[in-house]
Structure formats: C-alpha cells, structure tokens
Amino acid sequence: MATKMLSRTLTAARPLSHQSIKPRHLLPSLTQTRCLTQADIDDPNMNGGYINPPPEKRQFRDPYADWWDKQERRNFGEPLHEDHDVLGMFSPHVYTHFTPRKGFFLMGCFIATVLGLCGVVRVYYPDRPSVRRAYEGGLDRELGGPGALLVSGNLTLA
Q1: How far is it, in rounded angstroms, from Cα 88 to Cα 59?
Q2: Model pLDDT for residues 38-55, shown as the tens digit of each residue
Q3: Across-strand partners of 55?
Q4: How many other CB atoms are there within 10 angstroms of residue 88's CB atom?
Q5: CA dist., res. 52 & res. 87, Å (int)
Q6: Cβ atoms within 10 A of the Cβ of 58, count?
Q7: pTM given for the model
Q8: Per-residue pLDDT tens over the stretch 82-110
Q9: What angle do CA 21, 27, 32 make, to 5 degrees?
Q10: Do residues 140 and 146 touch, judged by C-beta distance below 8 A?
C-alpha cells in the first residue's frame, strides 16, 4: 500500500513551472504617504509641547547643593530632559580623570620603563657559571653523524 501511495504522490507532483505565478506588477502595492498636519507644524519637535530643559548631565551638577532628590541631584517639580536616561545619574559616567594626551603619555612612559628594565637585565645578566663540556671527537658517532653505524629496516630480532 505504501508503494501505491508513493506512486500517486509522484504522479500528482507538478514542477514549479506549471504553477501559476502572479507577475509583480499585478500585485497590489501598499504605500504609506505622510502628510503634514497642523499639529506637526505647531510642534516641530513632536513632543506634545513639552518644554525641554537644556541637556545637562547630572554627574556635573554640584553634589553638595541642597537638592530635593540628593541621589539624582534634582529638585521637586523640575522638568526632566527628553533624554533623561542618558543624562541621569545612573547612566555611564563621563571619564574626565585623564585627557587622552596625558593617557598616551603615561602609557608611553610605562612601555619605555619596561623596555629599559629589559635592556638593563640583558646587559647585566650573569653568564653561565661553568664552561660547557667538550668531547674529544664531538658526539658525531653517538648522535648519528658520518661515523655512526647505520641500521637498516631488514633486521630481525633473535
């Protein structure tokens, strides 16, 4: 019965070229056009008329001032900036400890110090405390040199 079903499937299958494919130019196109309304003209920032205070990172506000919210450094009723998530205290801090110029200078001093220390150690590192051992004929015969006994692969163990 399985072969009968398989044969029916194979005879009923048609190649893709026989299927009806709609040309692209006959498919409906959905385009969206935007037209300006009076609200867009009156409010170009599209924030509903919200008065946006100037952007100031809370990190740079005086930490010792008398703030209503001491952790966030803001007063009660003070409007928040539109980008408060970027300007608030819990956003990443701006690194102002070193300027890039001073950072590169310090990195260069570190590299120069390490390389100088390596050079001093190389100059003053002690030599070997003993003399290398010398053999009369060298180790040519022991290490397989020209006078060594060659071993062939045809040897059999007795």
Answers
A1: 8
A2: 656 666 666 777 778 888
A3: none
A4: 16
A5: 13
A6: 19
A7: 0.40
A8: 888 888 888 888 888 889 999 999 999 99
A9: 150
A10: yes
